[in-house]
Amino acid sequence: MNRDQLIRKIFPDIPTAYTQRDTMLYALGVGACADPLDAAALRFVFEKDLQALPSMSCVLAHPGSWVTAPELEINWVKLLHAEQHFQLFKPLPSEGKVTGKFRVRGVVDKGIESGALLSFEKTLHDAEGDVLGTVHSTYFLRADGGCGSWGEPPAALPLVPSSEPSGCIEAATLPIAALVYRLSGDYNPLHADPAVARKAGFDKPILQGLCAYGVVCQSLIRGLCDFDASRLRAMGARFTKPVYPGETLRTEWWTGPEGQVQFRCWSVERALLVLDRGVATILPA
User: How many domains would you assign to the chain?
Assistant: First the structure.
């Protein structure tokens, strides 16, 4: 990786308009209304009293595959999405216009043999220019260690408690979940083309990490927010294992003081931890 080029990189602002159709399509992609007769869940996929899932902030005004720029010299083939975090300062509207502003927040060099962590930040501004929220992505650059650390990356996510969870909820994903979710903007063929998935070392296409993240988001809203999406204002997690479409995701959580929640998520069928070190902030009803 050319760290100096990365530090100097300037990202253009990206204005984005989204409609209620986009909001409903995103919610369907993360399985927000598995039961179409569930009136509470219907509010995420039906225009009457429509609510936007807060995790949709992660896909709005997306900057595209900027890490593949030749001047950055990043071995992007070996890049993994390591962590994701968003914080909203007010509820995400069900439709509207937003502008994304971007910066590289920092690099943690773990050594030539161990790779590097790259922290990337998006700030979302609403149509009035006010800050709607921030989105942080951490990428594990497996082949770019030895580049040198720089900047101020976010603090490490905390370990979940060793005690029994306060509660849990299961959400089944559809076999076509990755194909639906990709219509919200992630067209990586790894999630659609079996031949590409096999070349990457998988038996079949895997679910997008941010799709699994969205499944967990709507599970927390179901389990802890009484289906009121406006109460979930922040959420972060570490991706630990890939998820396959059709698997059941079990989200376990520990509730703390002042609306602080910690969580993790398992693939039920494979008994594998797929998201860990989760943190969330939930406002009181």
Answer: 1
